[in-house]
Design a protein that fits this description.
The protein has 616 residues and is of the alpha/beta class. It has 19 helices and 13 strands.
């Protein structure tokens, strides 16, 4: 009995040490994020993370304890060999999850989510976005963690044999002992006797988000995101009202007092070129209050076109931005409609609608359109002419992901000459994505991330200038509306909080000779979202946008102004009066300057959105 108890204790301490090591790696790896975190909070993350550590350990120990129970009735001694292999495989898995969490947190500012786990399917392609030194560092961390864990595991199991036949008189008490131990583990998994099982909120304790994220057990979090997906697809996790009440609240948001849309174009059948600019946060656009002299050409387009100054992205990934702009469908927490091809049949597509009115559609991208199911989505949307990395020469493939923006923009400029008018042409940039390495002389000195990010945006801006200089005398230019919109915002260059509104603030610019001179240089301050673009564009073309039920015409001065955005652990809601943030982990409003009715509108928006998503 003493040997049994000692083994159980050693296994518990072994896994606890592994999770403490994971947490320490997180803190050291992101030491710069902890500069503003009090030392007492950093230390307290180990204490406040204990409950989730116990839950994770209880999950891991359940199978070995069941086998210990079984081995009492089997002569063959297999326990030591099995546990060694079992723990070794789990050790490798936990180490991999730890470093994958580091990579995701670096780019997204959040812990592992279901969407991040979905991206493992594209890990080989996604590695192109990461600097080689960063990949090597993560690999070293995996090797070190596995090595340390293996040495410790051998010490834990070294004296264990259990090769002897147990006395029949011991079988009953040991059986009872193991059954009681299983009950204890189940209680540990749940986090206690309480009605609601343990969740991430048990680890939250600080106003400093990095300390909370350090406290959350990474292995437990990844398991919840994986195992909880099916439940979320079946059981709606964002229910605040009856569906009838939620639908009624949202319906009134999309009904303007009257329709007096500004007609800003001189034609109803312009060519349309949409630039989806990777990570182009408002923080790099001076005309939106961003950093100075990062994107002077983009600013010049804003000053000579129409600048929509209060637009927010719905999410923080390119697949979310694509669905928002081309389908008018908002981003969902933890899920991506583009990553779920079975749902495409229920979406609306701007390219498809325009094709039905005589438009020729094309898409240009320097990367791999197979990533995150983009190609499947684009084809479903009605875009047949797709240009991606396979269309560029070897000497043009000088970006981590493929061809830099200068090559992509220029190839579109050449190819579009042969396109029949009117046409819709979409260009997705990539140079301003991590690792922010661009083929130009450094404009903002420094090897820090904010400087590198600004340099990459400056390169894209120069590429835009070269593109417009090359096409300004083209016969199709005078009849073209250019729309420049970010696919999503970014934490840099001002190190934004991942959940604050400014992280999602993006530029939207209409430019071109088809804009009535009366409206050139105009700033539209209506609060809105990427999803509002389909209704805005179609209203100018005098084409019905009724099918885009989540889209709200930005050029109707009588529209109701609001914006929604989401990360995987919270969603935000904005009106002209202020902002609200709802935290999924604590299931509560953590910040609000809105009225109770406006807060209810935000909750109803998410409820109806997810209702529709799971019904697709």
């Amino acid at each position: 009995m003493r040997q049994y108890l000692l083994l159980i204790l050693k296994m518990f301490l072994f896994w606890w040490f592994i999770f403490l090591m994971n947490r320490m790696v997180f803190i050291i790896y992101f030491f710069n994020k902890f500069n503003d975190v009090p030392a007492v909070d950093t230390a307290a993350s180990f204490l406040h993370g204990f409950a989730l550590d116990v839950s994770a350990i209880s999950y891991l120990m359940l199978l070995p304890v069941l086998l210990l129970l079984l081995q009492q009735f089997i002569a063959f001694s297999f326990f030591r060999q099995f546990v060694f292999i079992y723990c070794l495989l789990l050790l490798i898995l936990t180490s991999f999850i730890c470093v994958y969490d580091l990579a995701i947190y670096t780019d997204w500012g959040t812990k592992l989510s279901y969407r991040a786990l979905q991206y493992l399917e594209f890990a080989g392609q996604g590695a192109a976005f990461t600097d080689l030194p960063a990949v090597l560092l993560l690999l070293v961390i995996v090797i070190l963690q596995v090595t340390v864990g293996l040495i410790l595991l051998r010490q834990v199991l070294k004296p264990v044999s259990f090769s002897y036949r147990l006395s029949p008189t011991l079988r009953l008490p040991l059986t009872v002992f193991h059954l009681l131990l299983i009950v204890v583990l189940v209680i540990g998994i749940r986090g206690g006797w309480q009605q609601i099982p343990i969740n991430e909120s048990s680890a939250y304790f600080s106003k400093h988000q990095p300390a909370n994220d350090a406290a959350v057990n990474t292995f437990w979090n990844a398991g919840k995101k994986t195992l909880g997906t099916g439940r979320y697809q079946q059981d709606h996790p964002y229910r605040f009202f009856t569906d009838e009440e939620a639908n009624a609240r949202i319906a009134q948001l999309f009904v303007p007092e009257k329709d007096t849309t500004f007609r800003v174009l001189t034609t109803t059948r312009p060519n349309i070129v949409i630039f989806l600019l990777e990570s182009f946060t408002a923080d790099v656009v001076e005309s939106l209050g961003g950093e100075k002299n990062v994107t002077p050409f983009l600013d010049s387009l804003a000053y000579n076109g129409i600048l929509f100054s209060s637009i927010y992205s719905q999410g923080f990934r390119t697949d979310q931005g694509l669905a928002s702009v081309l389908s008018g469908f908002p981003a969902q927490p933890n899920f991506s409609v583009i990553m779920s091809p079975e749902k495409y049949k229920s979406l609306q597509f701007l390219p498809e609608v325009l094709a039905s009115h005589g438009y020729q559609n094309s898409f240009f991208y320097g990367g791999e359109t197979g990533f995150a199911n983009m190609k499947a989505y684009l084809l479903q949307s009605g875009i047949i002419n797709i240009t991606d990395k396979s269309s560029f020469d070897a000497d043009e493939m000088n970006a981590k992901w493929g061809a830099h923006d200068g090559y992509v923009f220029q190839q579109q400029a050449v190819a579009i000459q042969k396109e029949q008018e009117p046409f819709l042409s979409i260009i997705l940039s990539l140079s301003s994505h991590e690792p922010f390495t661009v083929p130009m002389e450094t404009k903002f000195p420094g090897n820090d991330v904010p400087s590198k990010f600004k340099n990459s945006c400056a390169y894209t801006d120069l590429s835009l200038q070269a593109y417009f200089n090359s096409i300004k005398n083209a016969p199709w230019y005078a009849n073209t509306l250019f729309i420049l919109v970010a696919d999503h915002g970014h934490l840099q260059p001002r190190n934004r909080n991942p959940r604050e509104p400014a992280r999602f603030h993006i530029p939207v610019i209409f430019f071109g000779e088809v804009i009535n001179p009366v409206f050139r240089g105009r700033k539209i301050e209506n609060l809105g979202m990427q999803t509002d673009l389909p209704a805005t564009i179609l209203s100018q073309l005098e084409i019905s946008s009724e099918a885009f039920t989540w889209s709200n015409n930005l050029l109707n001065p009588y529209r109701k102004n609001f914006a929604y955005y989401t990360s995987d652990d919270a969603f935000g809601w904005m009106t002209n009066k202020g902002t609200m943030l709802f935290d999924f982990k604590t299931d509560s409003v953590t910040y609000s300057t809105l009225t109770a009715s406006e807060v209810a509108d935000g909750k109803a928006y998410l409820q109806k959105l997810f209702n529709q998503f799971i019904s697709f």
